[in-house]
Structure formats: C-alpha cells, structure tokens
Amino acid sequence: MKVVARRDVTGELRTCSKQEGPAAAANYAGQLQTIARPVAAMTATYPNESTSTRHAHRRDQFILQITGVTAMMTERGHFVVPPGHGLWIPAGVVHQSRAWGEVEAQTIYVTPDRRRGTSETCRLIRASSLVEALMDEAVRMPQTYDQDGRDGKLLELLLAEISHMPEVTLHVQVPPDPRLAAICKAVLGDPSSDLTLDDWADKYSLSRRTLTRLFRRETGQSFSVWRQRVRLLEALARLGAGEPVTCVALDVGYDSPSAFAAMFKRELGAAPRHYLRWTDQEVVLR
C-alpha cells in the first residue's frame, strides 16, 4: 500500500491510501464495509489480466475507472468499464472483475440507506468532470470525515451527481434460463466462436424457433445482436489494454478491420482509435 499525503484548498492534510493488487484491495474493501460513516473510499491498482474472486459487498459500490479497462461479470450481466466511466453495483450483487491493461480505479462504498435515487440494479455511466473531481476528493478524505462539514457535503453532491448521470449500454444481459445462460457464458468465454443459432439449438436439444423465442423474451434482442454486443465489449476491453485494432478485429470474429471499425462506429459513435481516452500518447499543448 502506498500512502500519499496531500493538502486540499483549505491547507488541511489529507491521506490517500492506494491499494496495490487484488488481494490488498479486497482486504481493504472488507475493512471499509464497517466504517462508521455512510461513505468509504479507496484507490486501487491491478496488474494486467488480474482477476478478483467472486464476491459481494454489504454496501453499494461505485467504481470509477481511471486507467486501463475493467471487465465486470455479474450474475445478470457482463459490463466493460473504460476510462472515464463508472459502474454502480448494489449491495449483495455477486460480481468478479478482470483487468485489461494496468488498471487504476477509485471506489466508494455507500450504505444502502444513502442511495437516494441511485439505481437498485447495476448501472454503467459515462462520468462527468464533476463526478471525477468529487471522486478524487473522496479518496483523499479521512475515514472519519466530518459528515456535517465540507467533506460530508461533497459526498452528498457526489451521490446526487452519480444518480443524475445517463446510463451507457456497454453491457450484455445473461438470462436466468439455465440453457440460455450456458450458451451466453460459452460465447462470453470465446466471442470469436462462429457457432450458429442452429448449432446451439442442437447442442441443447431445442428447436431453432424455441431458442429464438426464448432468447428474445429473456434478453429483448436476437442472438446475433447479442453476440455482436459481446464482441464489441471484448474488443473494447482489449483496445483499452493497448492491443492493435487489426489484431482485435480478427480475434473477436470479424473478417476485416474495416468491417469491425464500421460496426464499432455505428454502435459507439466513434472510430476504435478515438473512443477510449489517452489512446494517443503525445500530449499537445494548445
């Protein structure tokens, strides 16, 4: 653990504890669940491809991605969290994370009674500059911050701003039906697989019509659209880890980088090289 002392605008000395690696982060997160304040915060770093154990928290959790990309699997969906995005995970939701690239993330744990309009389901947002600034303040606060003073007011504003942010759809649902869940988990494990809907229907002794109907009923979309979203999320995670666009496009099942780029821009509104922040290493002074 690295401890960095900083002074805020009032001159007060604040301590920022940075947990290094999944084990240290998990241990510290456990301690924060019983802090005698409604909000507890931490910063943590994770090596490339490191994973957490499957776990849940007694408090609501909000994770703000600073660098790298985090893939988050929950019981009901798979999320990808790029830099500048935040994921809200309600208390009790089982989840497991995987780091793509060298990841740094800031996290707050919130007692459910302070939810105040934030979601009772997992929710991914693109963070505003205000959320980013307030999270930076939160991780520097003492654990026993003054709830009635400046720190308490900043945290109230942070929770209000998080609840105000629009949702981003960088996730896929995993349906509760065990047959569909098995298919979805297999595709998530190998997004490049070219098995067709007929192949999956034969494997689980279902007719194509039944599988199509079940899949649309439980996910709200067709299997092909769902699989395209899985490939997009896999690509986004790997691009965030710095892998070349061409390699990513071919590895997730596209015949050419141009076809992949067209899909990516159609879905996210920007070319693969431009969607993630800090993809250009050069800093331009304007």
Automatic annotation (TrEMBL):
InterPro entries reported for this sequence: AraC-bd, Homeodomain-like_sf, HTH_AraC, HTH_AraC-typ_CS, RmlC-like_jellyroll, RmlC_Cupin_sf
Domain of life per record: Bacteria
PROSITE patterns: HTH_ARAC_FAMILY_1, HTH_ARAC_FAMILY_2
Cross-referenced Gene3D superfamilies: Homeodomain-like (1.10.10.60), Jelly Rolls (2.60.120.10)
Keyword DNA-binding: yes
Keywords noted in UniProt: DNA-binding, Transcription, Transcription regulation
Keyword Hydrolase appears in the UniProt entry: no
SUPFAM superfamilies linked to this entry: Homeodomain-like (SSF46689), RmlC-like cupins (SSF51182)
Signal peptide from the UniProt entry: none
Pfam family name, one: AraC_binding
Domain HTH araC/xylS-type: 181-278
Name listed for the protein in its UniProt record: AraC-like DNA-binding protein/mannose-6-phosphate isomerase-like protein (Cupin superfamily)
Organism: Bradyrhizobium yuanmingense
